[in-house]
Write a structure and sequence with these properties.
Blueprint (H helix, E strand, L loop, with lengths): L1 E2 L5 E5 L2 H4 L7 H9 L10 H14 L4 E5 L2 H4 L8 H16 L3 E7 L5 H5 L8 H16 L5 E6 L1 H10 L10 H28 L6 E13 L4 H15 L1 H7 L12 E11 L6 H6 L21 H9 L7 E5 L7 H20 L4 E7 L18 E3 L6 E3 L1 H12 L1 E2 L2
Parallel strand pairs: 2-3, 2-9, 3-4, 4-5, 5-6, 6-7, 7-8, 8-9
Antiparallel strand pairs: 1-12, 10-11
Length: 411
């Protein structure tokens, strides 16, 4: 029998743009219209149906839920803040609190106000100033009801997809801009961390817990050759830990600018490089069939033991860890439960090795709009009928609910 601590946070995650619908002032929305890409449209209509969705979460014995604030709703025009939308997100937080769901609130989850992007987005040297102004407006209003804050979701993914691969808006392929965006995001987090703590101190509130949500991946060397081991090591340091290290360089009064480490884990990459060239060391992967593992519907390897390896590696930071995302898109709900079970098993192994893990948030509560992949990938504990917007709780969600209720992981 595997037993988790009584105060463990159990729940699921969503992000505003992916579930709310009709975020018309966001850069992503305008990019959809301009390019004719897959349209987010009504998404899951969570903006209107959030009470129903939170009832489902509560009935599934969740005690925490991660949401994000849509910056483009709060500040649709530069310097013009919407008190109506602020009230909406306050209502959302209070709806969570009424159901005894601990809010984990993300300030930036990929999307930006269109006006911000027109000014150069995160490549603009003034981007941190704009983000802090928005953050201050939000945190002052919600601080009495929120303890856990995520400033920035998956900065490494945002940088790579928007500024290196160029598949997300603004679709720029520029290593120079990518480096500038990384520095601006790291500085923005450090300054937001300081700002949030300052607000809580001013309001005489219990100190908050502030972090990022860093996407991590297991880099596994194929055939265990020296060049593959070196490449896997370098990718781990750059991709998994690079942004965390950059944030740490912005030490504030000799204090780590993270109160815990939020990590999003889904998959592995099998590393097989041709030579020691920069391109090969950074990008080459194994495409053969020598290491077959189950995959999700997007073709990502399912490799739960990789989460254990990464958690053990994070011990060096001497900070609590929250699993802020972990999930699978699949048409096979039995596979979804196996995915959850296996990852929880390895999380518990890490805890037995001394890693302080404080919570597990499955991605996602709902099927949702998966960015450039559209609505086809089904990650949700809850199935969404996109014609009727009817919610249907999957069997895997009910099995996970037993773990959330008891803290015991059993087949």
């Amino acid at each position: 029998m595997i037993k988790f601590p009584k105060n463990f946070l159990w729940g699921a995650a969503t992000s505003s743009y992916q579930v709310e619908g009709n975020n018309k002032n966001a850069d992503w929305w305008q990019w959809e219209k301009r390019t004719g890409k897959i349209q987010s449209g009504n998404a899951c209509r969570h903006y209107e149906l959030y009470e129903e969705d939170f009832d489902i979460a509560r009935n599934l014995s969740h005690n925490a839920h991660r949401i994000s604030i849509e910056w483009s709703r709060i500040e649709p025009k530069e310097g013009k803040f919407s008190h109506k939308e602020l009230q909406h997100y306050l209502d959302v937080i209070l709806a969570l609190r009424r159901r005894n769901l601990e809010p984990v609130v993300t300030l930036h989850h990929f999307t930006n106000p269109a006006w911000f992007s027109k000014k150069g987005g995160w490549a603009n040297l003034r981007s941190t100033k704009y983000f802090l102004r928005y953050s201050e407006f939000i945190v002052k209003a919600l601080s009495k009801h929120v303890h856990y804050w995520i400033t920035i979701n998956e900065p490494t993914i945002y940088i790579s997809h928007a500024y290196i691969f160029g598949v997300w808006p603004p679709q720029e392929k520029s290593l120079i801009k990518a480096a500038q965006v990384e520095e601006n995001l790291a500085f923005a987090h450090a300054q937001a961390y300081r700002l949030i703590h300052k607000i809580y101190k001013k309001f005489k509130l219990l100190a908050p817990a502030v972090s990022i949500a860093q996407n991590v991946m297991a880099f596994v060397p194929f055939a265990n050759s020296p060049k593959n081991r070196v490449a896997a090591y370098l990718r781990d340091k750059a991709y998994n830990l690079g942004f965390i290290e950059r944030v740490m360089h912005h030490n504030i009064l000799r204090r780590k600018p993270l109160d815990f480490i939020g990590i999003n884990y889904y998959s592995r990459q099998m590393v097989s490089v041709k030579d020691f060239g920069i391109g090969s060391m950074a990008m080459d992967v194994c495409y053969d069939k020598h290491h077959r593992v189950a995959k999700n519907s997007l073709g990502w390897d399912i490799y739960p033991q990789g989460l254990l390896d990464i958690l053990l590696e994070l011990k060096t930071y001497d900070l609590p860890v929250m699993i802020t995302e972990n999930g699978i898109c699949t048409a096979n709900d039995n596979q979804r439960w196996k995915y959850i079970y296996d990852h929880l098993k390895y999380i518990h192994c890490a805890m037995e090795e001394g890693v302080v893990v404080i919570g597990y948030l499955y991605w996602s509560l709902l099927d949702n709009f998966e960015w450039d992949k559209g609505f086809k990938p089904r990650f949700g504990l809850v199935d969404i009928n996109y014609k009727t917007y009817k919610r249907r709780v999957r069997t895997s969600a009910k099995k996970f609910a037993k773990v959330c209720k008891t803290g015991i992981l059993a087949r």
